[in-house]
Write a structure and sequence with these properties.
Aldehyde Dehydrogenase, Chain A, domain 1; seven-stranded mixed beta sheet; alpha/beta; 515 residues; binds 2-aminohexanedioic acid; single chain; Aldehyde Dehydrogenase, Chain A, domain 2; 24 strands; 2 domains
């Protein structure tokens, strides 16, 4: 298998501008003299390449370069900025296969998901291109005669992007494509687990910028870990907005540090997503959705299905369907077309998986399938596990907690009110689903007293977001919204302006002041 990874890497690296040794800081020029990250593929453990990190001085240079780029970029008319993003979308189309494959090599996602992730980047570039002609404010009726009151949206500044390993490229694009049309520069700190995809993306963006004659530092990059680079970014006054995707623990730290300096955050943190299967559900659909939600991306999406709440009348049938489905999941090399589940990202992820299962067992959880670390030559990296279903109770501390692994907790309920209470009784509030053919149940789920999550789906799973809808969640998920709807507003500065075109100076509230 080592050959396959090596061969794939050897083919795509040159086309993506990657080498064995890469610089991991982009400040309009490539820098990076901090300790190198050695990136091993989770597929077989082989070394893919190295990426250097930012020293504090280099972080500073990158932030300064992004700041300088912003000052010019904000003056470029928004539709012209959109043209640069449109071209970025074209470059991504041209490199979709290669970049998708690199995502697979670096994260262990199956090929379809790697390419799908690049498709999401393309989709957000399309959305942002159109948005560049739709950055609009309102005109508001004013009580003052001969006056006009309006709202304008201006570029904000340098936007910090902290992204996670599981969507190593899409989340950068969700933020940077919108930020770019809004007139912002971005300073990206990718996960230290996925530095190669980050370098490849920024190289593509750099080329597009140079072709368009704009300063490529609008897409700056600072590789490094949270302690070395993340902290600098969060504390940096030059960065008015930090958009961070990752764990609740990371988000809490970023939130605190940024709030201290009155900066803004856009947080997209942990989920603990439930899928309700009601008495009237189409069970075949439900099983398929649960499989994709719980096993897809090896359970490493923030939107992964972590809990299934099933009506007691259909528990047996659903469980049987799920066990059949789980049996058919082929686990192995994600570069093979037939594979549905690849490895976990690293040893710590495997430990979290086994620890969570032990904890659930201690609570009294019954394991219905999986939960094992796989061994044998095909699993030599030691990062392959069998996806697990556990009969559990919602209040157990381990169930209340997001474990980023393919573990599904199965629980039964009697009334929809009970199911809704269970679904909402976790600290997180990202994604949720109901499977029902009963209109009343579907509407109750979507009503104010229904799901408390940022995403609420009927008859489809919890994962698989589509560009266009605002993405994000409530409670410990952090409250941020990215990608669609009016998410662009987060990347801009709102200004209310009143123009007096009369020859008087009427005051609001009819106040008279002097003569
Ligand atoms: C999806 O469900 O399609 O980290 C997107 C994540 C999210 C993206 C999920 N930022 O899983």
């Amino acid at each position: 298998m080592a050959l396959t990874v090596k061969k794939a890497a050897a083919e795509i690296f040159p086309r993506l501008g990657l080498k064995v040794h890469n610089r991991g800081v982009f400040a309009g020029e490539w820098l990076g003299s901090g300790p190198a990250i050695e990136k091993h593929s989770p597929i077989d453990g082989s070394l893919l390449g190295e990426v250097t990190t930012a020293t504090p001085g280099e972080y500073d240079r990158a932030a300064a370069a992004a700041q300088r780029a912003f000052l010019a970029w904000r003056e470029v008319p928004a539709p012209k900025r959109g043209e640069v993003v449109r071209r970025l979308g074209l470059a991504l189309r041209a490199h979709q296969k290669d970049l998708g494959r690199l995502v697979t090599l670096e994260t262990g996602k199956i090929l379809a998901e790697g390419e799908g992730e690049v498709q999401e980047m393309i989709d957000i570039c399309d959305l942002a291109t159109g948005q560049s002609r739709q950055l609009f404010g309102r005109t508001i009726a004013t009580e003052r005669p001969g006056h006009r009151m309006m709202e304008q949206w201006h570029p904000l500044g340098v936007v910090g992007i902290i992204s996670a390993f599981n969507f190593p490229v899409a989340v950068w694009a969700w933020n940077s494509a919108l930020a770019a049309v809004c007139g912002d520069a971005t300073l990206w700190k990718p996960s230290e687990k996925t530095p190669l995809t980050a370098v490849a993306c920024v190289k593509l963006a750099e080329r597009v910028c140079r072709e368009c004659g704009v300063d490529p530092a609008i897409f700056s990059l600072v590789c490094g870990d949270g302690a070395a680079v993340g902290e600098l970014l969060a504390a940096d006054h030059r960065v008015p907005l930090v958009s961070a995707t990752g764990s609740t623990r990371m988000g809490r730290r970023v939130g605190e540090v940024v709030a201290k300096r009155f900066g803004r955050t856009l947080l997209e943190l942990g989920g603990n997503n439930a899928l309700i299967v009601t008495h009237s559900a189409d069970l075949k659909l439900a099983v398929r959705a649960i499989l994709f939600g719980a096993v897809g991306t090896a359970g490493q999406r923030c939107t992964s299905t972590r809990r299934v709440l099933v009506h007691e009348s259909v528990t047996l049938k659903l469980t049987k369907g799920l066990l059949d489905g789980y049996r058919q999941v082929s686990i192995g090399n994600p570069l093979d077309a037939g594979t549905l589940m690849g490895p976990l990202i690293d040893v710590a992820a495997v430990e979290n998986f086994t620890n969570a299962i032990d904890a659930a067992r201690k609570h009294g959880g019954r394991i219905l399938t999986g939960g094992k670390r796989l061994t044998g030559p095909a699993y030599a990296s030691g990062l392959y596990v069998s996806p697990c279903i556990i009969e559990a109770e919602n209040y157990w501390s381990i169930v209340q907690h997001e474990t980023f692994a393919p573990i599904l907790y199965l629980m039964t309920y009697r009334t929809l009110d009970e199911a809704l209470a269970l679904q909402n009784s976790v600290p997180q509030g990202l994604s949720s689903s109901i499977f029902t053919t009963d209109l009343r149940e579907a509407e109750a789920f979507l009503a104010a007293r229904g799901s408390d999550c940022g995403l609420a789906n009927v008859n489809l799973g919890t994962s698989g977001a589509e560009i266009g809808g605002a993405f994000g969640g409530e409670k410990e998920t952090g409250g941020g919204r990215e990608s669609g709807s009016d998410a662009w507003k987060a990347y801009m500065r709102r200004q209310t302006s009143v123009v007096n075109f009369s020859k008087d100076l009427p005051l609001a509230q009819g106040i008279t002041f002097g003569s």
